[in-house]
Amino acid sequence: MMNTKAIQITYWISTALVSLMMVFSAYSYFANPEVKQGFQHVGFPDYFRVELGIAKLLGAIVLLVPIKGLIKEWAYAGFTIVFVSACIAHLASGDTIGHASAPLIFLAVLAVSYFTYHKSKKAN
Questions:
Q1: What gap in Å lies between CA 18 and CA 20, rounded to an integer?
Q2: How many domains does the chain have?
Q3: SS3 35
Q4: 49 Cβ partners below 8 Å, 6+ apart?
């Protein structure tokens, strides 16, 4: 069983990884024309790219900021939906399994963050 310090370290590393990826992803949504083409490739409208970019920035902030209440749960749920949907969109559009599996890797990291978040809350 992990001690409290190891849980905290695991939580912060996994949360920082997910948050950094979401911030980088959101930045790419706004600044990279190839990402815009990628959204067209999977059949999403352009406004969804902007909407999702804003949501990813807000979700990353919510994961990193120490706030109470259910908003953190909503961020975790939102990112779970984003990662599963990204996998499905890649598979449905004929992309390789490599493209489809990347969101699932981040889903696993998100799960580590989520479970260690709750373990650290119990410990305190």
A1: 6
A2: 1
A3: helix
A4: 29, 35, 36, 39
Helix segments in the chain, DSSP class H: 4-31, 33-41, 46-64, 71-92, 97-123
User: pLDDT truncated to tens, each residue of the chain (124 aa)?
Assistant: 578 999 999 999 999 999 999 999 999 999 999 999 999 988 899 999 999 999 999 999 999 999 888 999 999 999 999 999 999 999 999 999 988 999 999 999 999 999 999 998 887 7
Q: What is the largest CA-CA distance in the chain?
A: 47
User: Looking at the chain, how many residues does it have?
Assistant: 124
Measured in degrees and rounded to the nearest 5, phi and psi for residue 99 equal -65, -40
The answer to whether 26 touches 56, Cβ cutoff 8 Å, is yes
Domain limits at 8?
4-123
pLDDT at residue number 99: 87
Q: Which residue has the tokens 């559009």?
A: 93
The residues, any chain, with a CB within 8 Å of residue 76's CB and separated by 6 or more, are: 63, 110, 113, 114
**Residue 66: in which H helix or E strand, if any?**
none
